[in-house]
Specification:
The chain has 191 residues and is α/β, with parallel strands linked by helices. The protein contains six helices and five strands, in the order βαβαβαβαβαα. Strand 1, helix 1 and strand 2 form a beta-alpha-beta unit. Helix 2 packs parallel to helix 3 and helix 3 packs parallel to helix 4. The longest helix has 31 residues.
Amino acid sequence: MAESNGATGLHRGRPGPDIRTRNASQGLMTDAGSTSSDRILIADDNQQNRELLEAYLADEGHDILMATDGVETIDMAVAEQPDLILLDIMMPKLSGYEVCQQLKQDERTRDIPVLMVTALKEMGDIERAVSAGADDFLTKPVHRIELKTRVRSLLRVRHLTNERDRLLAYLAEVEQPPASRQSGTPQSGTP
């Protein structure tokens, strides 16, 4: 596992500033038909919490990205388009609630599943997270099996959503009249 000094923007194979590799294994296939290219953004201001979540997911082969505050989380979500976001509620600059709400209102990030991970346990906190658009909710201390199960489930939903969108785009293209599909190329039999 790569060293960690609390730096942010950690992930594998993507160019840019402040970026390092984080991936325990490569080329794995999951039961959802995805590869190790699944990217998970872990957003938590506490380095130990980030490292624990990363360790729990290490043998799954995901690319791990990390953010330490709400603003950085939004910036990374827009730029990197992760497949899943693990989001702490109590963060500096913007709370997890605010981050989730902004992500779900932005068409570039609204379909990224958000799993809220927090020490808050009151029903009002859960209701507020759901109202902000969270797709699921885990309370700390996080149990490894519960985290892995929910991550796997949310990634499966993400992949199915992506596949649905690809199929709908294909169907829309196929249903267009032949002249509009060729967009300016001469049709057969015309000079």
